[in-house]
Write a structure and sequence with these properties.
With 103 residues, the chain is an all-alpha fold. The chain has one domain: Four Helix Bundle (Hemerythrin (Met), subunit A). Helix content is 78%, strand content 0%. The chain contains four helices and no strands. The longest helix is centred in the first third of the chain and has 33 residues. The radius of gyration is 14 Å and the shape is elongated.
Length: 103
């Protein structure tokens, strides 16, 4: 029987391409908001869904700091108004930075 950390590491490795795609989508949404001061509703909905999934899944792998950033991004995108572009960008950057050594 294999060890749990080894199994979790294997799952993490398998999920890396999807994680990179999700981080890229969040970066694209933040960039659009920074550049245009608006965000396409479909992109916003997709980014909200991604942030929600990351907030839920990253904690299972022990990435509590990344989970917190994803949760803040989710809250910002779920709010009725537009997020402040600089704050959204900062949280996306912080999320990526908190995972950089794992990517």
């Amino acid at each position: 029987m294999g060890s749990t950390p080894t199994a979790i590491q294997a799952i993490w490795q398998k999920q890396l391409p999807q994680l990179r795609d999700r981080l890229h989508l969040l970066a694209r949404a933040a960039q659009e908001l920074s550049n245009t001061r608006t965000i396409d509703p479909e992109l916003r909905a997709e980014a909200l869904d991604v942030a929600h999934k990351l907030a839920g899944s990253l904690g299972m792998f022990g990435y509590t700091e990344a989970t917190e950033h994803a949760r803040l991004i989710e809250e910002m995108l779920d709010h009725a108004g537009l997020p402040q572009p600089e704050r959204l960008q900062q949280h996306v950057d912080d999320l990526q930075l908190s995972l950089a050594d794992q990517l």
